Amino acid sequence: MKLLCKEWNEIGQDGVDWSGFSYDNTGAVGASSWRHVKFVEQAPVPGVGGNAPGQASWTFSSDVCKHCENAGCLEACPTGSIVRTEFGSVFIQPDVCNGCGYCVASCPFGVVERNKEDGRAFKCTFCYDRQKVGLQPACAKACPTESIKFGEIEELRNGAQRRLEELHRRGMEDATIYDPVDTSVGGTHAMFIVRGDPRTYNLPPAPEVPTVYLKKAWSASALAAGLLLGGTLLAFLSTEGKEMTDPTLIPEFDGLGEQREQRLDEIRRQAEKRAFDAVSSRPSAAPFPQATPENGYYGIPLLKEPPWTWEIPLYFFVGGARGPLR
Questions:
Q1: Terminal CA-CA length for the chain
Q2: With b meaning 16 or more CB within 10 Å and e meaning fewer, what string describes 131-160?
Q3: S-S: 119 plus which of 29, 99, 313, 314, CB 3.0-4.6 Å?
């Protein structure tokens, strides 16, 4: 099934390296694995076979994009690359995708992945090109045991319910149908019959579309903005009418503060005395040089000429005169 999916959609190979995780080398669905067969192993129980009613030692699970009724990837796509087809599937248009990756973070099943080479997002197309000409998806066509079934969604749900009743008659009481219709996802177009906890098959028990949390996010933002505005108004109102000379607003100096003030006064007096002595001892015939572009300010050479030439005032005048004309 995986190979025929790759062959029909012309997807490159992957999973050729030994991962060490049982017989599963691709690990999960992704940009180059649109159909992934999981090999789920359980702890062996002595005397119990592989598909015994009371204990499932190992099972296969063919994972794929769920094509959610309320698709998080579709709601998050900013370019309109992800669309809902006439068959109910969710399709990514590769020529429109800009590789932003919002759909990757918004998928509650971790299906969408960006291609490492060009950055665009890819996933199962539900063989949209085959369905348009009346053909089944490649995976359903190639499955030799017909464990992958394709058809109308209500017919598939009824068939899954009959299959579940049969499994229960055989003693497999832990068999369930995974179809999260009671969540914000609103159901999926790919359902699964699994044994035991769905999380064992990497299926979240209660998947949620991220956009359902937008209401809480906006409410929290509005509350924070209101508290900030209220605190700002309270700060202004609490100081209104108070002068800076108000003794309640001026901190009292302690002993250390008085010592610092005395030290500053002493430093100021010494600086004034040195300046006065320097001016008094200077010959009257040698006045301070005038500040010019040649000798700089107080005899210190300039590194560059002053920028305030006649062009600068003219620039501001013309710009200011032009503003009211717009």
A1: 67
A2: beeeebbbbbebbeeeebebeeeeebeeeb
A3: 99
* Residue-level pLDDT, tens digit, the chain, 326 residues: 677 888 888 888 776 677 677 677 777 888 888 988 888 877 777 777 666 676 767 788 888 999 999 999 999 999 999 999 999 999 999 999 999 999 999 999 999 999 988 899 999 999 999 999 999 999 998 888 888 999 999 999 999 999 999 999 988 888 899 999 889 898 899 999 988 888 888 888 889 888 888 888 888 888 998 999 988 888 888 766 555 555 554 555 555 667 777 888 888 888 778 776 766 665 554 554 454 555 544 455 545 555 556 666 666 666 555 444 44
Closest CA to 23 of 38, 13, 34: 38
Contacts of residue 74, defined as CB under 8 A and 6 or more positions apart, other chains included, come to 82, 83, 84, 90, 103
Which amino acid belongs to residue 115?
A: N
- CATH class of the domain comprising 2-213: alpha beta
- Hey, where are the domains in the chain? 2-213
